[in-house]
Amino acid sequence: MSTNPAPRNPQPLRPVIQRSGRLSIGAVDGFLDDWIAQFASRRAFLRIDGRPVLSLLNVTDFDKLYGTDGFLFLLQYIRRKLVSHFGVNPFLIGVFPLIDEYHTRILQRLPVDAVTGYGMLPDWEGPPVQWYGELIPKRVAEWHRLQQRLSIPFLPVVCAGWDATLRGAPVADIRQVRGFPWRPIVAGVTPQLFGRFLDEAIAFNERWHPAHRVVFLHAYNEWTEASAIEPSERFGSGFLEQIHARSRQLEGAL
Fold first, then answer.
1. CA-CA distance, 26 to 108, in Å (whole number)?
2. What beta strand segments (E) does the chain contain?
3. Quick one: CA torsion of 76, 77, 82, 84, rounded to 10 degrees?
4. Does pTM top 0.85 for this prediction?
5. Residue 59 Cα to chain centre, angstroms
6. Residue 229 near residue 244, CB atoms below 8 Å
7. Coil, helix or strand at residue 1
8. pLDDT (tens digit, 9 = 90+) per residue, 201-239?
9. CA nearest 227: which of 123, 144, 173, 157?
10. DSSP 24-88
11. How far apart are CA 189 and CA 171, in angstroms?
């Protein structure tokens, strides 16, 4: 497990960020100061190995926007600032949208402590309607293939469903439109299948990195993507009950 210590002198790469016109060191400082004050300083804030967790979404977009050198400098700068405040190295988690060759190569060179996915449930180039029970083994198999190629932990994400059509204008037939937010739609979601997905995530962590039993959930209240685990008219408290049934296995991991 790499701790990725902060560099002693990252200053030569500062112009890479400053010239981009999209980010400034002052803006980074302002964000981190607010993050520390409002979140990371709280006693209940997520820590791994005693280190405050900062998730970065979407790492592949950062890499594309600022270039590899610019993004590496940004990560180094974040580490230096947070070490100076907390006295410990932060636990940086890179968040990315899709497991494929392009994203894997970027993840392999990033100095972060772990990675996880955002949502990461449907096959984006697949049919307009897909089935939850069929997608679960596909995603789990991808987790294992990715972890074999990474030197840092992949922390699995368990998604409770996907249907983002609320974000788009009504259409008569989703087969006549392409892409987000109309398609794909994931059907056949049940709390029981969600529980099976959780079991796969728990088993994955036990196999690959039992010291880091972290499972990310997508999502608590993302109603516009039909992936909310909080109580609803459709499922009641079924998702939360599935989590509670595994509470001993997941204690301190979610």
1. 29
2. 47-48, 51-57, 91-96, 114-117, 129-131, 157-159, 185-187, 216-218
3. 110
4. yes
5. 10
6. no
7. coil
8. 999 999 999 999 999 999 999 999 999 999 999 999 999
9. 157
10. -HHHHHHHHHHHIIIIITSTTS-EETTEEEEEEETHHHHHHHHHHHHHHHHHHHHHHHHHHHHSS
11. 23
